[in-house]
Design brief:
It is a single chain. The protein has seven helices and no strands. The chain is mainly α. It has one domain. Helix 2 runs antiparallel to helix 3.
Length: 164
């Protein structure tokens, strides 16, 4: 993994931490005036699951490079780790995050709830059917690492859909 990729990964993790802190502050301020809305708790769970999955993917990429080194296939494994795994969630994750931000900013408007539900349903469908995600969750044992994208992020999306 190059220095720039590590910097990007560190920036993503820092953003995830900051976002989580914002959500906790928002939840605390709302709980002082009454119950925390189910949509807020569920979006926090999705954000936490997303952060956990990003950490798992970074660890998996490192394991893939290590596997390549020990099996004389470093160049191919490094290419896969660098370019084959990075952005495959983005097409669904970014619209989902945008919809969640709009939901927070609107304090739970019906239109924002409908959009989050639509995005969450599409994202969950993608997660449950994507071959790369299933391979990451169940790779060959000799790689020595796996992810839990289907159960971690897919489960949080299911809970979000139910909460809405």
């Amino acid at each position: 993994m190059s220095a720039s990729q590590q910097e990007i990964g560190s920036t993503e993790l820092a953003h995830d931490v900051a976002s989580g802190m914002f959500d906790k502050i928002l939840a605390m301020s709302m709980s002082e005036s009454g119950d925390v809305p189910a949509w807020l708790v569920a979006t926090q769970q999705v954000a936490t699951a997303g952060s956990d999955v990003h950490k798992q993917i970074l660890e998996f990429k490192e394991a893939l490079i290590k596997y390549g080194k020990t099996h004389g296939d470093l160049e191919d494994m490094a290419d896969i780790a660098s370019f084959g795994i990075n952005d495959f969630l983005s097409a669904h994750e970014l619209p989902m995050l945008d919809a969640m931000m709009e939901l927070r900013e609107s304090n739970g408007s019906e239109a924002a709830i409908a959009e989050v539900k639509r995005q969450a349903t599409a994202f969950q469908q993608f997660i449950s059917t994507d071959q790369l995600i299933h391979w990451l969750d169940s790779p060959p044992t000799e790689i020595g690492n796996s992810t839990t994208i289907v159960t971690t992020l897919g489960g949080a999306l299911s809970a979000l859909i139910s909460a809405l």
